[in-house]
Amino acid sequence: xxxxxxxxxxxxxxxxxxxxxxxxxxxxxxxxxxxxxxxxxxxxxxxxxxxxxxxxxxxxxxxxxxxxxxxxxxxxxxxxxxxxxxxxxxxxxxxxxxxxxxxxxxxxxxxxxxxxxxxxxxxxxxxxxxxxxxxxxxxxxxxxxxxxxxxxxxxxx
Length: 157
Prior knowledge:
35% of the residues lie in helices and 31% in strands.
């Protein structure tokens, strides 16, 4: 079940993000990138972003958090991580769909870690700029156009 991240989820959500990050992303980054991400994904980091136009979701199955996602400003996927033991089971896809359903923009963006680019491409995102780096985190800017309300309404012209 996808639901809003609760205060009581922050430590577990942080642990899921760190396990996924350390497995898939960290090996390709410099030490300062790993440190930067540790700050972002810390329980305190989640707490600081509450109320800053940030939607934080978890995929919870029987009380176990299997994935974490965050949408900023109703248009930017700021975080999407699935516990390595739960990957390739539709968790990431479900979380991404939930974020997109909450987007209030014609375009949804993400600064994808390089190992996640193929996942986003499979879900309609395209590269929208050159690979960048910020505080040691290397990312690929990507974007996905969403149908406008009129285009999404059957029979609309």
